[in-house]
Design brief:
With about 190 residues, the chain is an alpha+beta fold. About 45% of the residues lie in helices and about 20% in strands.
Length: about 190
């Protein structure tokens, strides 16, 4: 699993092999069982994660107590909660493992020390955040501009592996539609092919 992380670092940094190995040996990698909650909505985050293997869902409870899925994180994606700018630093989301996962676990308190020790790590994190933010902007624009059927088509084009990895009611929530609407869309599309 550490080779996945080294490959990822190669994409975003110019760290030497020695530095990459030192970082990999300093970080904590955990196997996390399906159903494990990494962060509960309302809790103050103390950790961040990088998915080496598995799928993690991000959701929140709306005012009626209904779960609203806002993201799925899979291999080579980072999970962090940016609450530092808020007066109430509590997380707006819950993160739960949909599969058995292997994740890098970062301690937010130690993070600054790691950045000071390995400046390329801070650069890598910034590039990763910029990349993720750009993707989120595109996804939001797509969500707003497209019909539910077009959203589903865009989703299967961009993340086809998730179709069979996540429960359909959670996928429907992510797409902003009911499970029944998702079933109708899938049936309609299957009849066209």
């Amino acid at each position: 699993m550490k080779d996945i992380l080294i490959k990822y670092m190669d994409k975003y940094t110019t760290l030497s092999e020695e530095q990459k190995l030192a970082i990999v040996n300093e970080i904590q990698i955990e196997e996390v069982k399906k159903g494990t909650i990494l962060l509960q909505q309302g809790d103050i985050p103390t950790k961040c994660y990088f998915v080496l293997q598995g799928c993690i869902r991000q959701y929140s409870l709306d005012e009626a107590g209904k779960e609203v899925t806002s993201n799925f994180y899979t291999e080579e994606q980072a999970i962090t909660s940016f609450q530092h700018h808020k007066q109430d630093k509590a997380s707006s989301y819950t993160f739960v493992c949909l599969e058995d996962c292997i994740v890098v676990v970062g301690d937010l308190i130690v993070e600054e020390q790691m950045y000071n020790k390995y400046t390329q790590l801070a650069i890598m994190t910034r590039k990763m955040i910029e990349h993720n933010f750009g993707e989120m902007q595109d996804e939001l624009a797509t969500f707003i501009a497209l019909s539910p059927e077009e959203r589903y088509k865009a989703f299967i084009k961009k993340r086809p592996s998730l179709i069979n990895r996540v429960p359909q009611h959670q996928l429907a929530s992510y797409l902003g539609i009911t499970p029944e609407s998702l079933s109708r869309i899938k049936k309609r599309l299957n009849n066209h092919f």
